[in-house]
Write a sequence for this structure.
């Protein structure tokens, strides 16, 4: 059995400060895995520039000129982290046996790749990188992240606890994943739906090596809400159930009001009436907002717009653009 070809897919957005640091770390990891006989010499690091406004693409192209193990793609505009990861995975799918997606900031422990490749060689098609703890997070981020994963599972979405987008996928799993045509992407919720044999590798997450995080609280909350509404219809069902409860209570209230009127015991209650009206009005607005979110997603899905557009490639990617897919090696 020959060693598999590995592509490390790295999404990049305004990473000019950290890229010169982590690029060498990625190359060293490729060399270590190659020398250990776990991966083939044809393995590569594939950077995906997600419409950066700084010198990220210039750095990627320079790296590719200096070392053939570095390759790069540039999206035509910023499409977001999830689309950038998807772009890299789909472009690498026919060039390799396995991919590992990882962020550019150096926070995810690259040494976990050794265990991921071992798990693949042991028969797993998908290997999830899972944080063993959240000691480096602030209290607020830790609490919201843990609450988010619990909420997703409660809503019926199948996600791996404390897993982000650090994972290994075989070419076979990627080919099946390519059949998922969702425009609204939440990869960490979609990948488990592919199936195949999978396992988890646990690692410690480090501080960012340079630059600033591109995922502030507002973006994290947006990603969380997108994940829930993209993977589950349970919020709609909860709204239906809650609406039924309100309807029953309203019916009881109407009966009570009629009885009080005809028995002559009705008492003026402007404050209570106003509170009830405001409460029901607020709930209706909230429910319409949730329903509108689903309708908006339907609107985007039926348009079937492309999820990414590649505007430029480094020379190595140009040469391999029409290369045939390698046969599965395990």
């Amino acid at each position: 059995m020959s060693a598999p070809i590995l592509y490390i897919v790295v999404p990049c957005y305004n990473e000019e400060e950290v890229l010169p640091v982590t690029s060498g770390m990625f190359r060293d990891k490729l060399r270590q895995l190659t020398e250990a006989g776990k991966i083939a010499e044809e393995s590569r690091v594939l950077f995906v520039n997600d419409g950066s406004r700084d010198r990220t693409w210039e750095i990627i192209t320079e790296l590719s000129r200096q070392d053939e193990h570095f390759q790069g793609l540039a999206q035509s505009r910023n499409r977001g982290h999830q689309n950038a990861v998807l772009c890299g995975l789909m472009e690498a799918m026919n060039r390799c046996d396995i991919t590992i997606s990882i962020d550019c900031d150096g926070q995810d422990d690259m040494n976990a790749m050794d265990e991921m490749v071992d798990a693949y060689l042991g028969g797993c098609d998908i290997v999830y990188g899972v944080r063993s703890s959240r000691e480096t997070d602030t209290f607020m981020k830790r609490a919201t992240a843990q609450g988010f994963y619990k909420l997703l599972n409660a809503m019926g979405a199948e996600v791996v606890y404390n897993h982000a987008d650090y994972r290994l996928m075989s070419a076979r799993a990627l080919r099946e994943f390519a059949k998922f045509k969702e425009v609204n992407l939440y990869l960490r919720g979609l990948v488990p739906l592919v199936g195949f044999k999978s396992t988890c590798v646990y690692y410690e997450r480090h501080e960012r090596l340079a630059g600033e995080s591109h995922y502030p609280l507002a973006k994290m909350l947006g990603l969380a809400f997108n994940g829930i509404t993209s993977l589950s219809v349970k919020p709609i069902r909860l709204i239906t159930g809650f609406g039924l409860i309100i309807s029953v209570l309203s019916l009881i209230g109407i009966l009570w009001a009629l009885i009080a009127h005809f028995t002559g015991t009705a008492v003026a209650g402007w404050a209570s009436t106003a509170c009830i009206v405001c409460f029901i009005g607020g709930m209706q607005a909230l429910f319409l907002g949730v329903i509108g979110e689903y309708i908006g997603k339907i609107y985007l899905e039926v348009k079937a717009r492309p999820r990414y557009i590649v505007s430029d490639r480094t020379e190595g990617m140009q040469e391999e653009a029409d290369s045939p897919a390698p046969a599965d090696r395990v």
In short: The mean pLDDT is 79. The chain has eleven helices and eight strands.
